[in-house]
Design goal:
mainly beta; ten-stranded mixed sheet; 62% strand
Protein backbone atom coordinates (compact mmCIF):
# COMPACT_ATOMS: atom_id res chain seq x y z
CA UNK A 1 0.00 0.00 0.00
CA UNK A 2 1.32 3.45 -0.94
CA UNK A 3 0.93 6.34 1.50
CA UNK A 4 0.44 9.90 0.24
CA UNK A 5 1.44 13.26 1.67
CA UNK A 6 0.60 16.64 0.15
CA UNK A 7 1.41 20.06 1.53
CA UNK A 8 2.74 23.55 1.09
CA UNK A 9 6.46 23.83 0.60
CA UNK A 10 9.32 26.23 0.83
CA UNK A 11 12.63 26.64 -0.96
CA UNK A 12 15.90 28.31 -0.09
CA UNK A 13 19.25 28.71 -1.78
CA UNK A 14 22.53 29.07 0.10
CA UNK A 15 24.62 31.11 -2.35
CA UNK A 16 27.87 30.84 -0.39
CA UNK A 17 27.75 27.02 -0.23
CA UNK A 18 25.76 26.44 -3.48
CA UNK A 19 23.05 24.34 -1.78
CA UNK A 20 19.45 24.36 -2.98
CA UNK A 21 16.95 23.24 -0.35
CA UNK A 22 13.32 22.18 -0.83
CA UNK A 23 11.10 21.11 2.07
CA UNK A 24 7.51 20.73 3.17
CA UNK A 25 6.25 23.23 5.71
CA UNK A 26 5.06 22.05 9.10
CA UNK A 27 6.85 18.68 8.92
CA UNK A 28 10.10 18.16 10.78
CA UNK A 29 12.77 15.74 9.71
CA UNK A 30 14.26 13.34 12.24
CA UNK A 31 17.03 11.85 10.12
CA UNK A 32 18.79 12.27 6.81
CA UNK A 33 20.12 10.00 4.09
CA UNK A 34 23.05 11.03 1.89
CA UNK A 35 22.86 9.98 -1.77
CA UNK A 36 25.54 11.25 -4.16
CA UNK A 37 25.21 15.07 -4.17
CA UNK A 38 21.93 15.10 -2.20
CA UNK A 39 20.78 14.92 1.39
CA UNK A 40 17.26 13.50 1.76
CA UNK A 41 15.33 14.40 4.94
CA UNK A 42 12.93 11.84 6.44
CA UNK A 43 10.27 12.54 9.10
CA UNK A 44 9.16 10.33 12.01
CA UNK A 45 6.51 8.68 9.78
CA UNK A 46 9.20 7.80 7.19
CA UNK A 47 7.98 10.31 4.62
CA UNK A 48 10.57 12.11 2.54
CA UNK A 49 9.99 15.74 3.56
CA UNK A 50 12.96 17.62 2.16
CA UNK A 51 15.99 17.55 -0.08
CA UNK A 52 19.25 19.46 -0.17
CA UNK A 53 21.05 19.50 -3.50
CA UNK A 54 24.77 20.16 -3.10
CA UNK A 55 26.66 21.99 -5.87
CA UNK A 56 23.22 22.95 -7.21
CA UNK A 57 24.41 25.37 -9.88
CA UNK A 58 26.56 22.67 -11.48
CA UNK A 59 23.86 20.00 -11.03
CA UNK A 60 21.19 22.10 -12.78
CA UNK A 61 23.52 23.91 -15.19
CA UNK A 62 22.32 27.29 -13.90
CA UNK A 63 24.31 30.24 -12.61
CA UNK A 64 24.40 30.74 -8.84
CA UNK A 65 22.82 34.20 -9.11
CA UNK A 66 19.89 32.75 -11.06
CA UNK A 67 19.18 30.23 -8.28
CA UNK A 68 18.68 33.02 -5.73
CA UNK A 69 15.08 33.66 -6.81
CA UNK A 70 12.86 30.71 -7.69
CA UNK A 71 9.32 32.12 -7.99
CA UNK A 72 7.46 28.80 -8.41
CA UNK A 73 8.31 25.18 -7.87
CA UNK A 74 6.81 21.77 -7.30
CA UNK A 75 8.59 18.89 -5.59
CA UNK A 76 7.42 15.29 -5.93
CA UNK A 77 9.04 12.25 -4.39
CA UNK A 78 8.08 8.62 -4.60
CA UNK A 79 9.64 5.69 -2.79
CA UNK A 80 8.86 2.23 -4.04
CA UNK A 81 10.63 -1.11 -3.63
CA UNK A 82 14.00 0.33 -2.63
CA UNK A 83 14.09 3.08 -5.27
CA UNK A 84 13.48 6.77 -4.87
CA UNK A 85 12.26 9.00 -7.68
CA UNK A 86 12.42 12.76 -7.23
CA UNK A 87 10.90 15.24 -9.66
CA UNK A 88 11.50 18.93 -9.23
CA UNK A 89 9.71 21.42 -11.45
CA UNK A 90 10.74 25.03 -11.03
CA UNK A 91 11.00 28.27 -12.92
CA UNK A 92 13.79 30.81 -12.90
CA UNK A 93 14.02 34.21 -14.50
CA UNK A 94 17.07 34.80 -16.68
CA UNK A 95 17.30 38.15 -18.49
CA UNK A 96 13.56 38.75 -17.98
CA UNK A 97 12.71 35.38 -19.50
CA UNK A 98 11.06 32.59 -17.47
CA UNK A 99 12.79 29.24 -17.96
CA UNK A 100 11.29 26.03 -16.59
CA UNK A 101 13.45 23.15 -15.39
CA UNK A 102 12.14 19.65 -14.75
CA UNK A 103 14.91 17.34 -13.56
CA UNK A 104 14.10 13.75 -12.61
CA UNK A 105 16.38 11.96 -10.17
CA UNK A 106 16.16 8.18 -9.75
CA UNK A 107 18.30 6.38 -7.21
CA UNK A 108 18.29 3.08 -5.36
CA UNK A 109 18.39 3.42 -1.58
CA UNK A 110 19.78 1.03 0.97
CA UNK A 111 17.48 2.26 3.76
CA UNK A 112 14.28 0.32 4.31
CA UNK A 113 11.56 2.91 3.76
CA UNK A 114 7.87 2.22 3.17
CA UNK A 115 6.36 2.92 -0.23
CA UNK A 116 5.12 6.50 -0.17
CA UNK A 117 4.53 9.56 -2.30
CA UNK A 118 4.93 13.21 -1.34
CA UNK A 119 3.90 16.29 -3.33
CA UNK A 120 4.41 19.89 -2.27
CA UNK A 121 4.52 23.19 -4.09
CA UNK A 122 5.27 26.81 -3.52
CA UNK A 123 4.25 29.86 -5.50
CA UNK A 124 4.95 33.54 -4.86
Amino acid sequence: MKRNLEGEGQADYDYAHDILFFKTKEREYVRSIEINNMVIDIDKENFLVGIQILEASRFFGIGKKDLLAIPNWQFMASIQDGYIEIRIVFQIKIRNKIIEKNPIIMQDIKESLPNSQMICEMAE
